[in-house]
Amino acid sequence: MSITHIVMDSSPDQTRKRNQNQTLAQKSLFLYFSFLFFLLFFSSSHHSFYSHTSLQPSAFATPYSATTKLPVSLYVHDRILFPDHVLLTLSNPQVFPPHKLHCLYYILINNPALSNPVYDVLVRPVLSTDRYDEFRSIARCPLPSRNFSAVELSWRDGDNDNQPFRFPVKPTAQHSFDMLAYEVALDNDTAVIFVKGLNLRPHKISNASLLRCHFGPQNGAFWFTTKAVAAAQEVVRCELPQSIQNNPHKARGISATVSHVRDEAMIPSVAKIGGYREEINRGNKKKNKLELCACTMVWNQARAMKEWVMYHAWLGVEKWFIYDNNSDDEIDDVVRELEVKGYNINRVAWPWIKSQEAGFSHCSLRAKEECKWVGFFDVDEFFYFNEMRRNALISIVGNLSNSIAEIRTGCLNFGPSGLRTHPRNGVSVGYTCRLRTPERHKSIIRPDLLHVSLLNVVHHFELKEGFRSLNMPQSVAVINHYKYQIWEIFKAKFFRRVATYVVDWKEDANIGSKDRAPGLGTEAIEPRDWRLRFCEVWDTRLRDFLLSSFADRETGLLPWERSSE
Fold it and tell me: Which stretches are annotated as coiled coil (predicted)?
């Protein structure tokens, strides 16, 4: 870490003249961009909005090193402030190794009204980088201990942190994730916008007539306004402007946001049309849909991924949508290994914290183009059938009445089962003692038969009128939920819960909720008898089946224990 001192020298006369010139230039640019945007929608040009490099948003000049040539053009589009880091969206979808980049924080150390403001530049390593969509990548920067005016990126020059930096053209406020339109997806003639800050009622469908939707360039030069047709929690479905319906290929890169009818101010947005949907539909329109897919959201669950995927592939799951919520483990390596083995994995970078319900709504839109049925369950949850056979799960969904749009299966919660260390051969073999009574359920749904609002409470979705749910009889199947594992793994739940409306365990609220572990407080302190808790019934049925049917006869290893060839 290093700090560079920067002084902005300018006399009052120079400042006044520069401001006058900048004002004239800004007015000219505004008229030019507005006219260009108008032509964009109503001309016959095939170029998308986003592809115009002259319109790509960049509030700052690119940081540079005097001794290091930039490998590509790279701009920071947006800065989103989270409780524990700053997320930067970048102009290039190429992912650069984090050790190649620095986070720069500009910290004002005197009065900004002075003619010579003085800034410190604080340099910190980048936490991680990732691909976000087809035209953006992301980088995560740590929160510094001091308040900062702006954050940027710089290329590293070997191990030398003391580089000359170009100062930003003007300070730009960071977006707070508490009030932000963060994602948008097209769905036929509507756009589904995902947004924080509306404060809509949890678990309820809201009055969409109180909201308005807006589409335009991120600089706000020109906006189309339409009405919302459905709203629930963090999801707002909007009518598309007619110009976009007529020319959807021209909408790529356009920003989308919402406002309340009582407040004309639009919620800040980093949501851009394109990316995900284009990626889904490319080359898939003429293909038959898969019968059964699975969707989950994970944070640092790489160790459990192979076991979960391989086992459920045997039951009939054909594709997996893995929504990665800021993992910093080996998930990329595990996904690549599974893909080499022939498993159809789609890892989705989902950097938005406390947004599991919205993520599942987003996944239902993505999966609808490819899958007839989609299961929403976690990587520590394993289906078990009283009559175990290959493709048992896909056989169930393939033989249901057309009026059924959701299957709900009850969960049996397993405890640490006396273990002190993580079971080498997997959770489905290692944890064998559980609570007696099933608790809650997980669902497999028809994504084309969901309510227009996409309302869900993680465990199940709201369905279209005229369709119903089916409760899976416990005599047919259950889900083994390996919920209470050894303490070193379980305590990660104290870091942050992914569901929007579940209180983080560090907060002194809802202490008696089923979303918490019984008997635990607000601190990650291991109870002395943790390994013996949640044990009422010894249940070795799935373990016995796997050891007898899946283990290699010579080595005794299960498929997920074997190294990649």
Answer: none
